[in-house]
């Protein structure tokens, strides 16, 4: 979550920059409402992408594999506890 917030802040900062003719970058004076709208759009896109990843087959396989590994680890702990 923290990474997503940092990414949105970075995108907002980069979105406010314009390259001048002399090669320097200057802050584009956008209004607060425009920045808010841009950040909301970026946040919605990130949320949609995160939902796609969560629903993907690769994520489901990784979740199943993690569950299997946890079950194996639990069985080993039980065996050690018996001895």
Task: Outline the structure in words.
By secondary structure, the protein is mainly alpha-helical. It has one domain (2-82). Helix content is 77%, strand content 7%. It has helices at 2-15, 32-55, 57-82, and strands spanning 17-19, 25-27. A hairpin with a 5-residue loop joins strand 1 and strand 2. Helix 1 crosses helix 2 (32-55). It is elongated and about 75 Å long. The two termini are 43 Å apart. The model has no long low-confidence stretch (mean pLDDT 80).
Sheet with the most strands? Answer: 2 strands, antiparallel
Strand content: 5-15%
Distance between the termini: 43 Å
**What's the arrangement of strands in the largest beta sheet?**
1-2
What value does the Rg take, in angstroms? 23 Å
Helix content: over 70%
Average pLDDT taken over every residue = 80
Structural class: mainly alpha
Whole-number count of domains: 1
Q: What is the number of strand segments?
A: 2
Question: What count of helical segments does DSSP give?
Answer: 3
H/E element order: HEEHH
Catalogue the unreliable spans: none
Shape: elongated
Write the layout of secondary structure elements.
Blueprint: H1 2-15, E1 17-19, E2 25-27, H2 32-55, H3 57-82
Antiparallel strand pairs: 1-2
Write a compact overview of the structure shown.
77% of the residues lie in helices and 7% in strands. The protein has 83 residues and is mostly helical.
